[in-house]
Every structure is written in C-alpha cells, then in structure tokens.
Design a protein that fits this description.
Layout: H1 2-18, H2 67-82, E1 90-96, E2 102-108, E3 112-119, E4 124-131, H3 151-165, E5 170-180, E6 186-195, E7 198-209, E8 212-218, H4 238-248, E9 251-257, E10 262-269, E11 274-277, E12 283-285, H5 286-292, H6 324-331, H7 339-347, E13 358-366, E14 373-382, H8 393-401, E15 407-415, E16 421-427, H9 441-455, H10 457-460, E17 463-465, E18 477-483, E19 486-497, E20 504-510, E21 515-516, H11 525-535, E22 537-548, H12 555-562, E23 567-578, E24 583-587, E25 593-595, H13 598-601, H14 616-624, H15 642-652, H16 663-671, H17 689-697, H18 703-706, H19 715-723, H20 737-748
Parallel strand pairs: 10-21
Antiparallel strand pairs: 1-2, 2-3, 3-4, 4-8, 5-6, 6-7, 7-8, 9-10, 10-24, 11-12, 11-23, 13-14, 14-15, 15-16, 16-20, 17-18, 18-19, 19-20, 22-23, 24-25
C-alpha cells in the first residue's frame, strides 16, 4: 500500500511539473488567455520604455536632396507605421529596381530580426518578424494547443493592422482565417486588397500570434502594376457583361468519378479565363491576351543523373527458419517472370525501340496486400551522332565537347506475372530540340494506335481518341474510356511518339473498374449552361492586364524594355465570374449545379443546434479552430463513434478530414499517431469517456506518466485528466459529442 501511495505521489508531482496550468482553476467558457508579455501590438495606449516618436527629416531642396534623404524619410515612415523600437543594433538597406522599385530593410540584433519590403511611396509590401522567444521546447507527439491569443482578439488586431498597412484608396477584404494550433500557434488571415471598394487581383496574408503581428505579405510584393488606377465607374452594365461572360462559357458532357468507384455524367466547364472590359464591353480571352505578349513561355527542363549505388556485400546469413507468413509472401514470387524473360517479351514490341538499349537492372515490387508484383526495368543507350532522337546537333556537339555522358535512360514497368505493360518513360541528355524534326498529328495518332493494339489491346478496344478540351494539344496522344458514347477521362491510355524514330518514348495507363450511373434523360446543354451561369456571381473589379512593352510609348516602357521586359501589367476595370472553381459543373441527369462542399473550402464549422447546449462556447471555439463535425449540426447528445473520435483528433493535429474519407485512410493516419490500433479499429463502435481520454492523453506528453500506474489500467489517466479539468465522473459511460468536445478543449487549453 505504501508503495502504491508513493507512486501516486510521484505521479502527481510529475503531473504538477509538466502541466503549468494545474495550479489554477480552469478558465470559464469564453475566458481569454492573456500572455504574460505582449509585444508588437498595433495600438498600445500605454507608452513603452523607448517610445517611437513621430519624427520628421528636415526638408531639403528637391534639387539637392540625395538618395540618403529619401531613404531616411522612408525608414522613419516604416518605423512609425510598424512601431519599430530603437533597440535594434543593425540595419541593412537594399534597393531593387524594376517595374515598381522597392527597398528591402532589415533590422536585427542578437535575438531579433525584422525584414520589411517597402515601395518608394511608402507602401509596405511585406513584413517578416523573427525572435528567439518564438522558439519553445516542442513535444513531437500529439501536442495541439489553442494560440495564446483568442480568435476575436486576433481578428481585431488584424483589422487594425490592415488599416495601417494599406494606403488609400485600398481596403482589405478578409476571405479566410486559419488557426494554426500548437505552442507557437497563430492565426493566418488571407484575403483580397480592394481598390476604390472593388476587388483587385492583389491578395494578402497576415499572421497574428500572442505577441502581435508576425508577418504580412502582398501578392504584388515583387512585381506591381503600371499606369493610373481607373475610376470605379463602369460604362457597361452588369446585365450586358453577364451576357458576354455566358457566351464564352463552354461545357463538355463527360463521366466524372465520385471517388468511391462510381461515375456520373456531368457537364464540365472548360472555358478560358474570360473578362468583359467594363468600358468597351469587349469580351476578352485573357489566356490568349497573355500569350500574345509572351506571357505563356514554354517550360524549360533538364535532369540530373545520379550514380547507381555500388553493390553492397551481402552479410553472412544466420541460421533461421521461415514462418508461415514469410513462406506465403515468398510464394507470391513463384510464378513471376525473370528479368530476361520480360526483356525478351518487351523487345518483341518493336515500337519500344529497344534495339540499341541494354538492360541494366530489373527490380520487383509486391503490392502491400500480397497481390500483384510489378517489375521495373531500367535500360540505357548512348546517344550518338547517328541518331539524335529529334534533338539539335549543335547541342550534341557542345555536350560532346564538354565530355558529358550522353546517356539515354528508358524505364519500363510491367506486371511481373503476365508481362502486361504498365508504363514507359524516356529521359534524354539534351534539352534543345531540332525544330526541323516534326511529326504530324495524324502520323502520331496512327503510331500510337498501332502500339496500343499490341501493348494493351483489351483496354484500347474500350477507348477512343479523347476530344475533350485540353487533351491531345501537345505531343502526347491520349485515349479515354468511352461508355454510352461519353468519355470517362479517369481511365485513359497515353502515348508519346518520338518524331525522329517513330518509337514510343512514354506510355502511361490509368485504369480502374468503375460503375457508371444512368445515361438516359440527359438535360440539354443549354439548360446546363443556364444552371451553371446562375450558380456563378458576376463581379465588377480590377483585373491585371498585360501591356506589350515593345509597342508602348513612354520613358518608363523604354526603360523596362532595356531591362529585358517584354510586357508589364496594369489594372483595368472589368466584369468577371467570381470564384468559378467553386462550381465544378452541372449534373447531367438532374441539371443542378455541382459545387465544392463547404467543408473543402474552409476548416471552420458552424452549427444550428447549439442554442441551449452546455459547453456551447467551447464547442464553437473548437469549431473556429477547424475541429468539429461537417453537415451543419453538432448533435451534442449523440454518442461518439470511433470514426468521429479519430476525426476530431486528426483535426486537432492539423489534418483535414472530409466526410467521404475512407475508413482505411483514417486508420492509416490515426494509427501511426497512436490514436487507435488496427486491432481495436471499429469505426462505428461507441467510445467511452475514459476511452476518449486515453486516445487524447496516450500519444501526448502525458502518456508515459499515465502508464506508470499499471496496477489499474486507467488510474494514471484519471489523475491527469482530473488535473487538466476533464470530467471523469462517468468513465465507463458512452462519450457524447459534447463530452468529447469538453475533454479535447480542456486538453488544448492547458
């Protein structure tokens, strides 16, 4: 008995040392945790020890004022705006010229650093503050905690800072708030910079923590807009603009996966980025406009060859025996083909062009469930002057003169049992292609079809050349599955043919069994267009507009042309569809618009059934931090299931869990964190109050201490739970949603 008492006392001592908040009562619902030291606030009614005075630089004659005078004025303006104290020991100033020149200012001392990018007119573009005090001894386990500052206070500070940081006529529209949990938690505000009360293409992010502003960033930080800001009055009315926007919309009827093995017909939008000029009424394809001024340059690519690892000397085997499980796993390789057998089969496909290639290695990978075995073969061939595979002779000569290894690599994967081709990829040592070596689309398609008829005849028979927009506009030829006359691009075969040799450079196959929905009584395209347009909002605002520097008069444009710019951007007033990505299309059968669920757009939950619920404030605090249940109702008295418990804990650990997330995925994510084991996993089983307490405390810093009392399985957890303010009065009763919220809140509010 004495030993048990001693253990309990020791455990209580350990708990008291590891839980700073245990010495005081838990805060009431809605109470605010105030940090002991508050710095960097936008407004401080009490003077600091070293107040920053509103200082002015003596005026100089404009003709004699130098760069140092202008910089001094700018530094003082930034100090006044950001309340920068005088205790920093160093300041560096860098100037960057360009479309919109700016200064990069950096204050620092032994423990702090403040970086500010600011334009010459005083517009602050970015703020980044770092301090040693932000570092804490973090526990790398389950360690969520609310930020030191409550959300309402953070929102008030964010509004104050945005008012100070944005010059007239700019204002801020906050579009989202993300709570970053943990010992160094903060709130990340993201939104749009409005000009003259209208949205603009400029976005911003701003972070607030317990010490105040930690960072700010404008989307136009490194490249701004030229020209004068147009007045906010439009010459074209919204109805006319809506007609122009609707006329640019294109919808394509196709099968779309539901993520659970099914597919339904949907009209999918494929229209270009389109606006209507608010003054002229012209409908403008912005993608084409940017392309016309060189804003859609081709991607340049390359690769880095890594040396193959040297063969390691095999360790001397010890005497051992094989278990039944190991024998069963080994049996999976009983009928696989050898590397030589696979190589011989592949060389029979002449379209792969393997004659000059040498097989270097053949690796095998078994699926996790002990099913299919995939063989991965790596081939190499030297590139010679006899065949350059469509690349430039000049590039070859230059690389040869540099004594570079001009090796072609071809990787092929197959089903190791059947030899069925899965993928092909080819990497060349050069990057500059010979423009004279071309292949017509018709020849490319014919070569791809001949290859597929031999490499994947059964799948090829179910496909057609994909004519949906965005497909077959480059070198790859893509064939998609067709069902009831409509494409399902989720299942496809893609082939890239080398224009010089006519052989296959790349092949990919994505194919899964799909259950297709009904394909009769489809709504008309016009009805779908009407439903799609109705689901979108026509917005008047400022848009980025490219201006061709090479044909625009003016000293500024001449200077930019000398600096190498081909185009710059200005702001113009236009109408456009706001957030079209939220509308995924129109259901081909019901005719209703398909939108992105709210749970995928925001991690903040709102409920309609908390009017008189006990612990309402705590439930809503969790909801604002992205921890809760989707669907709009919390159901406080509903019994907590394992799936729901794991969902809450994953959310508290920074994960997004959607309602359609599969159980296996939840188990995989929750298992390695220690929330639940595979043996105990029963998604629909009810969790007891003590069971949820164990799920919360076990993977945390308190888990080891709780396990010290192993005579009674739950006693250690109960002691710590009580110390944290958790209700342990009914440990074996089923936990309700409200009880689970209270337990998790008390843990995070420690």
């Amino acid at each position: 008995m004495k030993r048990m008492t001693a253990i309990i006392l020791a455990l209580l001592l350990a708990v008291s040392l590891s839980v700073p908040a245990l010495a005081s009562d838990s805060p009431e619902d809605g109470d605010t945790q105030t940090p002991t030291v508050t710095l960097w606030q936008p407004e401080d009614p009490e003077p600091t020890e070293t107040p920053v005075e509103e200082t002015e630089v003596p005026a100089e004659d404009p003709d004699t004022a130098g760069m140092d005078t202008a910089l001094a004025e700018l530094v003082l303006q930034v100090k006044n705006t950001l309340a920068v104290d005088d205790d920093y020991t160093d300041l560096t100033n860098d100037f960057y010229d360009g479309v919109t020149p700016y200064w990069s200012l950096c204050w620092s001392d032994e423990t702090r650093q403040l970086n500010v990018n600011v334009r010459q007119d005083g517009t602050i573009l970015s703020v980044d503050r770092w301090t040693d005090s932000a570092r804490t001894d973090r526990f790398y386990g389950f360690d969520p905690a609310f930020p030191a500052l409550r959300r309402q206070e953070a929102e008030e500070q964010a509004e104050q800072w945005l008012t100070k940081l944005l010059p007239e006529p700019e204002t801020a529209r906050i579009d989202s708030v993300t709570t970053v949990l943990g010992a160094n938690g903060n709130y990340r505000f993201a939104g749009t910079v409005e000009k003259n009360g209208l949205p603009s293409p400029i976005t911003f992010t701003l972070c607030i923590d317990g010490t105040g502003l930690t960072s700010f960033y404008r989307g136009d930080c490194y490249a701004g807009y030229v020209g004068e800001l147009p007045a906010p009055e439009a010459a074209v009315d919204e109805a006319a603009a809506a007609e122009g926007l609707t006329g640019a919309v294109e919808l394509e009827l196709q099968w779309v996966s539901d993520g659970e093995g099914g597919a339904s017909l949907r009209y999918v939008p494929v229209w270009p980025d389109t606006v209507v000029d608010a003054q002229s009424g012209e409908t403008v394809d912005m993608d084409a406009l940017y392309a016309s001024v060189g804003g859609m340059g081709a991607d340049a690519g390359g690769y880095m060859k890594t040396a193959a690892p040297a063969d390691a000397e095999a360790p001397e085997a010890e005497e051992a025996s094989l278990t039944e499980m190991e024998l069963a796993s080994i049996d999976n390789y009983g009928d696989v083909m050898t590397g030589d057998e696979i190589d011989a089969s592949l060389r029979g496909l002449t379209a792969l062009g393997l004659d000059p290639f040498t097989l270097q290695r053949c690796s095998y990978t078994m699926a996790g469930d002990g099913g299919d075995v995939t063989a991965s073969l790596r081939y190499t061939a030297p590139m010679t002057g006899d065949e350059l595979y469509g690349y430039s002779a000049e590039g070859f000569d230059f690389s040869s003169g540099m004594d570079l290894d001009l090796i072609i690599y071809k990787s092929i994967t197959v089903n190791a049992r059947t030899g069925a081709l899965k993928s092909v990829s080819t990497t060349y040592p050069l990057w500059e292609k010979d423009p004279a070596v071309t292949m017509t689309q018709a020849v490319r398609e014919r070569a791809a079809e001949n290859f597929l008829s031999l490499a994947a005849p059964e799948l090829a028979a179910q496909t057609k050349l994909c004519t949906l927009k965005g497909y077959n506009e480059a070198d790859a030829v893509t064939y998609a599955q067709v069902h009831e006359g409509y494409f399902y691009p989720g299942n496809y075969l893609s082939v890239t043919v080398n224009p010089s040799t006519g052989t296959v450079d790349d092949f990919s196959c994505v194919w899964e069994d799909v259950t297709f929905g009904p394909a009769d009584e489809i709504v008309t395209e016009q009805d779908a267009l009407d439903a799609y347009a109705k689901a979108l909002d026509v917005t008047l605002g400022y848009v980025a507009w490219p201006v061709d520097v090479t044909v625009t008069d003016g000293d500024l444009y001449a200077k930019l042309l000398e600096q190498g710019y081909t185009y710059v951007e200005e702001l113009r007033l236009a109408y456009y569809y706001d957030a079209p990505e939220r509308v995924l299309g129109v259901d081909g059968v019901t005719g209703e618009a398909v939108t992105v669920p709210d749970e995928q757009l925001s991690r903040v939950f709102a409920y309609d059934d908390l009017a008189d619920a006990p612990g309402k404030d705590r439930i809503e605090t969790l909801a604002q931090a992205g921890i809760g249940f989707a669907g709009g109702s919390f159901r406080p008295e509903a019994k907590l299931t394992q799936r729901e418990a794991v969902t809450l804990l994953l959310q508290a650990d920074g994960e997004t869990v959607l309602p359609e997330t599969e159980d296996d995925d939840l188990l995989a994510r929750a298992g390695w964190r220690g929330f639940v084991t595979a043996e105990d996993w029963d998604p629909e089983a009810t969790v007891t109050c003590m069971g949820f307490i164990r799920m919360v405390l076990g993977p945390s810093r308190y888990g080891d201490a709780a396990e010290l009392l192993n005579d009674k399985a739950d006693e250690g957890y109960e002691i710590i739970a009580k110390a944290l303010g958790m209700d342990t009065s009914s440990p074996d009763e089923p936990a309700t949603h409200a009880a689970a919220a209270d337990i998790l809140y008390q843990f995070m509010d420690r």
